[in-house]
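so my prof wants the structure for this chain in the tokens format not the other one, which i didnt know existed until like an hour ago. anyway here's the sequence
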Amino acid sequence: MRKLIATVLLASALGASVVSAPNAAPVPGFESLYTAVFTACTPPAGTAGACEAAINAYSAALVAAGVEPAVALASFTELRSEVLAAGGVAEIDALFEALLPESGAIGPVVSPV
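here's what i got, hopefully its the right format
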């Protein structure tokens, strides 16, 4: 029953994020943190450690500012997609999956190594 409720809430949040597309990425006012995550997670400079630290910093800033969870999730989903499109490696996608599983796996799910 909890999984069903969680699934319904997540589907509602994702639906709301589609409606509010202008908030997709980056969240207004947090452009520099969004860019920092993108840079830390994409080759050639991207590393798992730097990517994790940048994701955590962006996430913490969004939470501290009281950004709606649906808006934050939409931003991370778009960020994950952009990282993959820019050549993000399986290790980085696995990191997104571990830290933000709600951001949606892109392609086959990669298990963390």
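also thought this was worth mentioning. The chain has one domain: 2-103.
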